[in-house]
Amino acid sequence: MSLHLRLLLGFLIGLATGLVVHVGAGADSGWLQVLTTYVTQPVGQIFLRLLFMLVIPLIFSALVLGVAEMGDIRSLGRIGGRTLVYTVVVSTIAVVIGLVLVNLFRPGDGIDPQVAQSLISDAAERAGTIVASSQQAGGIGMIVQIVPDNVIRAAAANDIIAVMFFALIFGIGLVATDTPGTARVKEFFQGVFDISMTLIHGVIRLAPYAVACLVFNLAAQFGWDLLVKLAGYVGVALLAMAIHFFVVYSIAVRWFGGMSPLAFFRGSQEAIVMAFTSSSSNATLPTALKVAEEELKLPPRVSRFVLTIGATANQNGTALFEGVTVLFLAQFFGVELSLLQQLTVMFVCILGGIGTAGIPSGSLPVIAMICGMVGVPPEGIGLILGVDRLLDMSRTVLNVTGDLAAAVVVSRGSGEAPSDTA
Ligand code: ASP
């Protein structure tokens, strides 16, 4: 049975039993307390902690390699620079579209504030220090704190932004230094990344059981409300993705790439179908490379470079989805996020898009981490995972199409001849 099917099954089992308990037993019954305290809560917690445990090695190695893949600074600086600027700009647009729509429709609103409050107080205790300290520091202090004075302390304090910043700088240093030693360092980080991926795959295999437990807890507490809100969330996420896909990509390829959007989407078809069915940018990479050269006729050197990096580093759909999800969960649990906090979420989502692995449900650890940062209970992930299939397929389509759009834009003016493969 496929992972997504098992996740759905876990979700349905958790939901059905949770709702039965909600209607029949009431939240105070003794056996329910025992069940949640000794079974469903610990199982859910262990799963979340396994995800948290892998965040730092995964994101750090992904970011270092993402920058290091830019190759040697002189020959690739131009293509690398353009790719980076494109990634940051278009990811920002994606996240902003998502955040505006969630604020507009507020799909998570309306939960009983008392129930929500009891959940938040736990999460607030676990929340990372970054948001609290950046609020104390005010606007400029927040920027200063992006630069860690001690990277080990930043990692220990779960100050992920500072860790990400260090990873980026480290990656740049790695590209700029060409010695036998640095080649080994790069290999080392490739190894760390590969190991993290194996472990994430392992943890994700446990997800169906954790989802059943997490959703059971939430359904027993919130009842039917849950389903209505989830439907709203899926609707808003899909709408935001559709806008980004049809509007932003069309503008990017037309204005900045000089290609007709119709020709672009038609040429990309094969990669789009592959992304939709596999839910994995990495798995779609070979198809994307083929499409870029044979259908879109892009210069191979540029498209190979942009697409290979993009499969991990340029994930517009994922960045958008992460923003929508964290804000939805914040609304659901009644956590008010100030503008500054929303900006922090946006910033982390942009970097999160770069640091997310291009595998099915690769966003999971990143969402768990961002939730923790802003004081939203990461348990909400159980809810999201149950309905993640369609969203994962859709955001992967955005990720892959976004890489192809980037390749079109970066190819223009790169001075390279287009592919001559017919
Ligand atoms: N499945 C996505 C991809 O491979 C990553 C994610 O979970 O957002 O592009």
From TrEMBL:
Its main location: membrane. InterPro entries: Na-dicarboxylate_symporter (IPR001991), Na:dicarbo_symporter_sf (IPR036458). SUPFAM superfamilies: Proton glutamate symport protein. The keyword Transmembrane applies. The keyword Transmembrane applies. Pfam families: SDF (PF00375). One of its GO terms (cellular component) is plasma membrane. One of its GO terms (molecular function) is symporter activity. This is Glutamate/aspartate:cation symporter family protein. It comes from Dokdonella koreensis DS-123. The lineage of its organism: Bacteria, Pseudomonadati, Pseudomonadota, Gammaproteobacteria, Lysobacterales.
